[in-house]
């Protein structure tokens, strides 16, 4: 599924209107009808609604919704802004005024009567450029989150970044909330990143007939794009991923078995391990690489720690890797197709082995200690290449790219605010490798500008010791199978979250790899 920036959305809308196939008021009618339809599905019995209409086209949608709910038997109260909302919204306001008054959008007017069964937040959408202020902010603060239906987004959310303008990025005290958010055509990054999933509630994406124009924009390269960037692909959202037919067939295709299969045709992955007493992380990664279907997996600790790896799984091969020459010698075997370095490795050992690992040109996952080593030595970063996947969490990202992390930390005063998507893309372009910025809202960015967002806010128990090690192993295993680095990272985050979802609270990282067979069977891989 494509994700569109707000600039892309505006450009597609204006392309559609320029084509003459559809007018602005028609688009607004479709958008309003989509929201009204979702309200009637969720609240089948007509009740009372308060509709808040802002100063632009989001407000225009609100007037359409008000009229349609009224026609459906709802008792509707409308609070709106004075001033010129633009021709389309003005037309919708005029139509509503034939049915009922527009009260001022003030706390006094809002509190003069009970809000009713639902409040429709049609104040700001994709046009938000600064924090809501004065009376509008006061009204928004009064909304009862559990009964709010948001048009495009809860007002105040920056749809390019998932941050609330004017507020610190972390912490959710007093934030706007909706029970249901109906957005148009495609999700925007802000629906999936940061606070977006929490404030939007259930997200419904309504088709308003812009498909032909979106596809034109999506097909072109960066130069053809409204905002000069290639399109984004949402690889999964919590509500749809496991059941989504397209996502399933995509995963299946990535993991398609070769026939006739031989263990080497499924690839050989090398998981470098740390010294005595530090082998657990690499073993988790190795187990995950085996479970995702790498034909062979070798764990490579220093010789003194080899004995620690004598236990199961017996499918795992062991070979001592003491220093860079040992690694180079192993990599002389062309069948060794992917490397994972970092989990439990130790920073010094990672730094010593990285030049050989990177110099081989093999697909390589850099995680944990390898990222710390990389942050400490700029020369190491020079060896990165397009088949490397860096898997930093926020803290590791800040060590690697302190300037980008600082931009992300600043309180966003104006929209569009800097997003995790922006900084991951810039990081990927800068280091020439795939960057997987991990979190509940993971972003995968490729140096050429392609990116994916994977929102897994519904599996908080995934944030546990060793979880990242198993993720690194999944990526290495998929790359050993010949999956492209970017797709391997995408596949791994999906399978990782699916496994966590199926395990539930109480998950420990050891459970994740062993859940893979059931998950893979479920997607028919
Ligand atoms: N782009 C599309 O394809 C479509 C857009 N539609 C609606 O149009 C919306 C976007 O409309 P607009 O571009 O008019 O923008 P909004 O309606 O989101 O915002 C209105 C205007 O308020 C001003 N503004 C921004 N932040 C403010 C603040 N903090 N305080 C006061 N004023 C502020 C800006 O000038 C902005 O243009 C979408 O969210 C959606 O609801 C739909 O009607 C149909 C399709
Ligand atoms: K809104």
From TrEMBL:
Record-listed (6S)-NADPHX binding positions: 57-61, 125-131, 152, 281, 344, 393, 469
Domain spans labelled YjeF N-terminal: 9-216
CDD domains from the UniProt entry: YXKO-related
Taxonomy, superkingdom: Bacteria
Signal peptide: none
Known function: Catalyzes the dehydration of the S-form of NAD(P)HX at the expense of ADP, which is converted to AMP. Together with NAD(P)HX epimerase, which catalyzes the epimerization of the S- and R-forms, the enzyme allows the repair of both epimers of NAD(P)HX, a damaged form of NAD(P)H that is a result of enzymatic or heat-dependent hydration.
Positions with a binding annotation for AMP: 438-442, 468
Catalysed reaction, written as an equation: (6S)-NADHX + ADP = AMP + phosphate + NADH + H(+); (6R)-NADHX = (6S)-NADHX; (6S)-NADPHX + ADP = AMP + phosphate + NADPH + H(+); (6R)-NADPHX = (6S)-NADPHX
Protein name: Bifunctional NAD(P)H-hydrate repair enzyme
InterPro entries: CARKD, Nnr, Ribokinase-like, YjeF_N_dom, YjeF_N_dom_sf
Record field: transmembrane: none
Similarity comment: family membership: In the C-terminal section; belongs to the NnrD/CARKD family.
Keyword ATP-binding: yes
Enzyme Commission code(s) on record: 4.2.1.136, 5.1.99.6
PROSITE patterns: YJEF_C_3, YJEF_N
Residues annotated for K(+) binding in this entry: 58, 121, 155
Subunit structure: Homotetramer.
């Amino acid at each position: 599924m494509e994700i569109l920036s707000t600039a892309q959305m505006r450009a597609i809308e204006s392309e559609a209107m320029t084509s003459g196939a559809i007018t602005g008021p028609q688009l607004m009618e479709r958008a309003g009808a989509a929201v009204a339809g979702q309200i009637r599905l969720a609240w089948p019995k007509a009740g009372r609604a308060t509709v808040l209409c802002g100063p632009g086209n989001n407000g225009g949608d609100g007037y359409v919704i008000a009229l349609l709910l009224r026609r459906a038997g709802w008792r509707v109260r409308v609070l709106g802004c004075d001033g010129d909302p633009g021709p389309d919204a003005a037309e919708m306001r005029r139509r509503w005024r034939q049915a009922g008054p527009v009260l001022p959008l003030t706390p006094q007017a809002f509190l003069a009567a009970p809000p009713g069964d639902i409040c429709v937040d049609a104040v700001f959408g994709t046009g938000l450029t600064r924090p809501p202020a004065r009376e509008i902010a006061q009204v928004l603060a009064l909304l009862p989150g559990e009964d709010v239906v948001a048009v495009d987004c809860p007002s105040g959310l920056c749809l390019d970044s998932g941050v609330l303008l004017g507020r610190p990025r972390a912490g959710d005290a007093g934030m706007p909330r909706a029970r249901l958010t109906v957005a148009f055509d495609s999700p925007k990054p802000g629906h999936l990143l940061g606070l977006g999933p929490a404030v939007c509630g259930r997200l419904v994406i309504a088709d308003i007939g812009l498909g032909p124009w979106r596809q034109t924009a999506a097909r072109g390269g960066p130069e053809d794009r409204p905002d000069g960037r290639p399109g984004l692909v949402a690889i999964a959202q919590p509500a749809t991923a496991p059941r989504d037919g397209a996502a399933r067939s995509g995963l299946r295709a990535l993991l398609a078995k070769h026939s006739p299969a031989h263990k080497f045709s499924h690839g050989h992955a090398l998981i470098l391990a740390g010294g005595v007493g530090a082998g657990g992380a690499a073993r988790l990664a190795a187990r995950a690489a085996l479970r995702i279907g790498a034909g062979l997996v070798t764990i490579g600790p220093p010789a003194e720690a080899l004995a620690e790896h004598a236990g199961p799984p017996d499918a795992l091969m062991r070979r001592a890797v003491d220093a860079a020459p040992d690694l180079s010698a192993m990599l002389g075997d062309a069948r060794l197709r992917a490397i994972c370095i970092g989990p439990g490795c130790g920073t010094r050992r990672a730094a010593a082995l990285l030049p050989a690992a990177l110099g081989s040109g093999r697909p390589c996952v850099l995680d944990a200690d390898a990222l710390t080593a990389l942050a400490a030595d700029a020369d190491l970063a020079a060896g990165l290449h397009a088949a490397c996947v860096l898997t930093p969490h926020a803290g590791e990202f800040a060590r690697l790219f302190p300037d980008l992390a600082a931009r992300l930390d600043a309180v966003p005063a104006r929209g569009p605010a800097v997003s995790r998507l922006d900084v991951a893309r810039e990081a990927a372009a800068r280091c020439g490798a795939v960057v997987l910025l991990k979190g509940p809202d993971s972003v995968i960015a490729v140096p050429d500008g392609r990116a994916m967002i994977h929102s897994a806010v519904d599996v908080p128990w995934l944030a546990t010791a060793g979880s990242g090690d198993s993720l690194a192993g999944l990526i290495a295993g998929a790359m050993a199978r010949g999956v492209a680095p970017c797709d391997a990272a995408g596949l791994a985050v999906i399978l990782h979250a699916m496994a966590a979802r199926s395990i539930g609270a109480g998950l420990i990282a050891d459970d994740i790899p062993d859940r893979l067979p059931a998950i893979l069977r479920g997607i028919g891989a």
